[in-house]
Amino acid sequence: MTTPPSGAPAAGAPAGVAAARVALVTGASRGIGRAAALGLAGRGFALFVAADGTADELAAVADSCRRAGAPDAASGQFDFARAGEAERMVGAALERFGRIDVLVNNAGIRCRKRFGAFTRDDFDRVVAVNLAASFFASQAVLPAMRAQGGGRIIHVASQFGSVTGEGQAIYGLTKAALIHLTKTMAYELARENILVNSVSPGPIATQFNRDAWDADPAYRDALYGRVPGGRPGTPEEVAEAITFLATSEGRFIQGHDLVVDGGFIIH
Questions:
Q1: How far is CA 40 from CA 22, 133, 198, 262, in A?
Q2: DSSP-based three-state secondary structure for 116
Q3: H runs (alpha helix) in 149-206
Q4: Which helix or strand (DSSP H or E) is residue 76 part of?
Q5: What digits encode the pLDDT tens for the residues 199-241?
Q6: Which pLDDT does position 13 carry in this prediction?
Q7: CA 183, 156, 265 angle in degrees (round to 5)?
Q8: Dist CA 252 CA 93 (whole Å)
Q9: Which of 3.30.10.20, 3.40.50.2030, 3.40.50.720, 3.40.50.2300 would CATH assign to domain 22-260?
């Protein structure tokens, strides 16, 4: 179910008045999305944070963004498995802020099973959230970015978009598709000053992953063993890459997949 965005406007700025720079981050209630939102807030972006989380979680993230330096922050709940939700999310962000300078497509889910055990529902839901939502959010934001003279779109893919592992058939398929989508969008949109890149995290110690690793120590140890440093990354380390691509330092980076995996795929 979709709920209206929440969050008070910045002092002296009524709702609907554009901030200097605005970032829309999906999957922002926790983990990498939350860290990315806070990182962008620290660089002076106003934030619209969206997820299929609870209203309380999202409101807390929006409040944290304001305390981290965002001139304004708002939030909204959206079920990205449903058709049309990505477009409604973009519409809500534009209604609130009047522009979107950076779109971070981070929302994603996993379904880890051995090949042969997946159902059609498994396939449809993972593809809808991990791929279709990013695709249609990106299309929805184009008119605003074109009207304002450009923007940046960052897809959060995965190292499993380039390599594989046990139970990753659907998840890896969607992340590989996101990397291809990044390149296609970058090729088509560069002349309109719309920069499109992706970030591919390796093993990252989000709460979701820590819970899964604790339930399967053998899988956890196998992942750690692939990282030369012998440790997982942090959400903040991925957020650093997202923030870099979202800011002026990355003006000539286009169509690139920035792998943040501690060396997971180099051997």
A1: 9, 21, 16, 22
A2: coil
A3: 169-189
A4: strand 73-77
A5: 999 999 988 888 888 888 988 888 888 899 999 999 999 999 9
A6: 42
A7: 85
A8: 27
A9: 3.40.50.720
Contact assessment for residue 177 and residue 131, using Cβ atoms and an 8 Å cutoff: yes
Tokens of 73: 């922050």
Q: Classify burial at 229, counting beta carbons within 10 Å of its beta carbon; exposed 0-12, middle 13-18, buried 19 or more.
A: exposed
Say whether 224 is catalytic.
Answer: no
Q: Which residue type, as a one-letter code, is found at position 237?
A: E
Structure tokens at 248: 């002026």
Q: Contact at 8 Å (CB) between 137 and 103? A: yes
* C-alpha pair distances (Å), 52 with each of 2, 131, 133: 9, 15, 12
Report the number of secondary-structure helices (H) and strands (E) in the chain: 9, 7
Q: pLDDT tens digits, residue range 70-80?
A: 999 999 999 99
Strand, helix or coil for residue 198: strand
Catalytic residue among 171, 187, 219, 224: 171
Measured CA distances, 225 to 87, 145, 160 (Å): 40, 42, 16
The mean of the pLDDT values for the chain is 92
